[in-house]
Write a structure and sequence with these properties.
Blueprint (H helix, E strand, L loop, with lengths): L1 H31 L46 H7 L9 H21 L1 H10 L5 H7 L5 H8 L2 E2 L3 E2 L4 E5 L7 E5 L5 E5 L11 E4 L5 E5 L3 E4 L1
Antiparallel strand pairs: 1-8, 2-7, 3-6, 3-8, 4-5, 4-7
Protein name: DUF732 domain-containing protein
Keywords: Signal
Organism: Streptomyces yangpuensis
Length: 224
């Protein structure tokens, strides 16, 4: 009886150890991912599994199928689908598999935009939804307003020679901070003036002579 109890205790301890390791890893992964606007009710694009096929914006470096051979095993591709696939399909890969990754990017943009357009715009700006630009252009033109907004924005982090103007952060996190510096390194402007509260919108005004704009915890910016 003692031997059985001891063995059971060892097995239980091992199981708890494995569970703890797994939990810690998941928590670290979650903390490492950039997040969309805090107010967003949409699914976090970063939590959506990436496609198993090559990323839609990662064109192959090796030989690709010529446009004349871009045909599915059954049916046919539309003109826009062929434009999307042109130069994107490795020689030995099924074009339909590559097309599917673009379609999935469209689905993610549409699903997120339906609930929170800021979250969708931010996901396109930051690249969380890979290949969104080409996918929207050729496969889901109804999402072009999201793409148009994203093309005017930029992600958080350092940015040299930014366009002057007023910008809005696509997050409502309370740890968003920003700073604009001149060529000599002097601080021209910074913010927010007071620590934001949950739900507050964070804006920034970039002076005309700004050499570098840097932000942290702000996810992405678009013109205000």
């Amino acid at each position: 009886m003692y031997r059985r109890s001891a063995a059971a205790a060892v097995l239980l301890a091992a199981a708890l150890t494995l569970t703890a390791c797994s939990s810690g890893g998941d928590e670290a992964d979650a903390q490492a991912k950039p997040k969309p606007p805090a107010s967003s009710a949409a699914p976090d694009p970063a939590d959506t599994p990436a496609p198993s096929a090559p990323a839609p914006d990662a064109k192959p470096t090796g030989p690709v199928l010529p446009d004349a051979k871009l045909t599915p095993k059954t049916g046919s591709f539309t003109a826009e689908e062929k434009k999307y696939l042109s130069g994107r399909v490795p020689e030995k890969m099924d074009p339909a598999a590559v097309l599917q990754t673009g379609q999935e990017a469209c689905q993610r943009v549409a699903r997120t935009a339906k609930r929170d357009k800021d979250a969708a715009t931010g996901a396109v700006i930051t690249g969380e939804i890979q290949g969104a630009k080409d996918a929207i252009t050729h496969l889901c033109p109804d999402q072009k307003p999201i793409l148009a907004a994203a093309e005017k924005g930029f992600p958080e982090g350092p940015r040299t020679s930014p366009a002057a103007g007023n910008y809005r952060a696509l997050t409502q996190a309370t740890n968003c901070t920003w700073e604009a510096k001149g060529k000599d390194g002097s601080v021209l402007a910074s913010g927010p003036e007071t620590p934001p509260k949950a739900g507050d919108k964070v804006t920034a005004t970039i002076p005309a002579n700004t050499a570098e704009f840097n932000s942290s915890g702000c996810y992405a910016w678009i013109p205000a």
